[in-house]
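Researcher: We're teaching a course module on how sequence relates to structure. For the next exercise, students receive a sequence and then see the predicted structure as tokens, so they can try to spot secondary structure elements on their own. Here is the exercise chain.
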Amino acid sequence: MSVQAIAWSAAGAVRILDQRALPEAEIMRDLESAEAVADAIRTMQVRGAPLIGIAAAMGLVAGTRDGRGSPRAAFLDRLAPLVALLGAARPTAVNLRWALERMQRVAEATPGDGTALWERLHAEASAIWEEDRAMCRRIGEHGLGLLTNGANVLTHCNTGALATGGIGTALAPIYLAHEQGRKVHVYVDETRPLLQGSRLTTWELMHAGIACTLITDGAAATLMRQAKVDMVLVGADRICANGDFANKIGTYGLAVLARHHGVPFYCAAPWSTVDATLAEGELIPIEQRASGEVTVLAGRAIAPDGTNALNPAFDVTPARYVTGFITDRGVVQPPFSA
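Model: And here is the predicted structure for the students to work with:
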């Protein structure tokens, strides 16, 4: 996979591919502070549940770099508000909280002064990134057996290298099938209102040489009725103990359509996306984003001034609609525990 959404810069900053600019331009940005990383997460320069967890962990490293050499207590005092800042950037994806809590636990358990703590945090953030690469690969391996040669897969939003530290979640089996020479074709939902499907997923798949066709979100039902979809494969931002899960708005509608038309519907995510502390989907906080994302497209108004627009970033799909969950631990069924 030649696409890399995040890295350390030579100077130790957090280097990101600014996803707002795709597909027109590939712009790399070096983020020097936790505040800059939080802004990048909030404004979706960096997006995708696994990737924002990695970015937040790396953001803590950037944000505490000037604390090297400080007393231990001062370093930890600096760390706590940065954890809160980054954690508030986006509320729905559990990977963000998971990564930040892991980094904070590591810091609190590490002996020594600010230099020792910072070096340990740097190593832990790098480990989270490398673990995500490995988890993506395992998700792909577990999902590979579900893809027949010549399969037509429908996907939603972006769940590939641009959303993770590796080859993706729901796109991972597709990448591995392509790697093995199997024929796989992907129908890509455009994913309104921010068009992560058309802007990001098609860019990724075409970059990799994988056959894909872009569709409007409303075309999915007709394709299923015409028996042109063999499987729906989506990602997740949070999975509850009972298997209800939150994903990009529009996922629930696809699940209902898939059930009606007898199309297998799979959710792919790393185990870190499971939030066993939440019993069911009604408890998931759903991020509400600005109405301008709906009423403006590419800087041009597509609705009258003053239009009131509802813009939930995610919806919740009940577990009963899910054929199976493809995780780094295998293809599994709820209930889930930590």
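Model: If you want an answer key for the exercise: The first strand starts at residue 6 and ends at 8. The chain has a mean pLDDT of 96.
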